[in-house]
Design a protein that fits this description.
The chain is an alpha/beta fold and 318 residues long. It has helices spanning 14-24, 43-56, 80-83, 105-114, 129-137, 141-144, 167-171, 173-180, 191-194, 201-207, 213-233, 241-247, 297-316; strands spanning 4-10, 29-36, 64-66, 120-124, 147-151, 186-189, 198-199, 238-239, 255-260, 262-264, 275-277, 289-295. The strands form 3 sheets. The protein has an 8-stranded mixed β-sheet, sandwiched between helices. It has a two-stranded antiparallel ribbon with strand order 7-8. The protein has a two-stranded antiparallel sheet with strand order 10-11. The structure holds beta-D-ribofuranose (BDR) and calcium ion. Calcium ion binds next to helix 1.
């Protein structure tokens, strides 16, 4: 079978970088391109990080495009306390040699989706600014995209940015509103499932038995991320949200799903950016997406570790 064709929209970010590595380690899928957005760090830093991670994994041929540096309406909100000032924790990757394509991220997404109708799976693991504008600019992408997997939201789970809101949605709730109401075939991967998926110090130590730049990068970046989780959330290890969303492109059985009408609060009060499901069908609105609400967490972490081991060995030998 031909590999599934994937487009990333991302803000690397520690777990975004891990999602890119997981994609490169997965023969079931092929990355067609990456559009970058503000979020965990500035868009320019995220662009540098994307190119550097691709070079680290010898995948510099993948086209990368710069998207928006600001949310649609809200002021900028970055996450240095979670991902470090450069977005990759304590990891120091060499400055990239490759350049991004000249096309803006929005044009890039539109062109890639429209040139392969029914073929492209879009994996959105940052704030949804690029996709929202792409939908407004070329509404035909709604029908042309094969499906969209979105890491974002907290349905029954507490927020990680406000008590009620998850980071990707909170940073640009108006963009999330456009996307959620677009009619695209979507799967939401909220904190309800990602917060069950902690990568631990022991897991990282297992990877470090292989001497290669990939485990070193994972160890240096996640050490910072683990310190954040310990200090702010009393979690042992770190939550690898974005790799779970990516894994569902080829291993959907890792999660259990329900179909619901899901919306986001953009009214500007204390629940700004809250994502909520109409579980009892009170609005009578048809379901607008699938949402992952159960996960086989340890199976996923095991899959992640095995693939990182294989990638390390295949790129850098034993
Ligand atoms: C999401 O926010 C970012 O910090 C992570 O990269 C992930 O995409 C989790 O709320
Ligand atoms: Ca992210």
């Amino acid at each position: 079978m031909n590999p599934k064709r994937i487009l990333f929209d991302t803000d690397p970010g520690i777990d975004d970088a891990l999602a890119i590595l997981l994609a490169l380690a997965s023969p079931e899928i092929k990355i067609e391109g990456i559009s970058v957005v503000h979020g965990n760090c500035s868009v320019d830093q995220a662009l540098t990080n994307t190119l550097s991670v691709l070079e680290l994994a010898k995948a510099a041929q993948i086209p990368v495009s710069r998207g928006f540096e600001l949310p649609l309406v809200q002021p900028s909100l970055l996450a240095p306390e979670t991902h470090g000032d450069n977005g990759l924790g304590y990891a120091q990757l060499p400055a990239p040699q490759t350049r991004p394509v000249h096309q803006h991220g929005v044009e890039f997404l539109i062109e890639k989706i429209m040139s392969a109708p029914g073929e492209i799976t879009l994996v959105c693991i940052g704030p949804l600014t690029n996709l929202a504008v792409a939908i407004r600019k070329e509404p035909r992408i709604v029908q042309a995209v094969r499906d969209v997997i979105i890491m974002g939201g907290a349905i029954r789970h507490e927020g990680n940015t406000t008590p009620q809101a998850e980071f990707n949605v909170y940073v640009d709730p108006h963009a999330a509103h456009v996307v959620f109401h677009s009619g695209m075939p979507m799967t939401l991967v909220p904190l309800d499932v990602t917060y069950q998926c902690a990568l631990t110090g022991q897991d990282v130590a297992r990877l470090q038995k292989i001497k290669s730049p990939i485990p070193t990068f994972i160890a240096d970046s996640t050490r910072f991320y683990m310190e954040f989780h310990d200090e702010y959330q009393k979690i042992d290890g770190c939550i690898i949200n974005d790799p779970l969303a990516l894994a569902l492109t080829f291993a959907p059985e890792l999660c259990d799903y329900e179909e619901h009408f899901i919306d986001v609060d953009i009214s500007g009060g204390v629940s700004m950016g809250n994502t909520f499901a109409d579980f009892y069908k009170m609005t009578k609105k048809p379901a607008n997406m699938k949402v992952a609400l159960g996960v086989r967490a340890r199976d996923f972490i095991e899959l992640f570790l095995e693939r990182m081991e294989k990638l390390s060995l295949s790129l850098f030998g034993a």
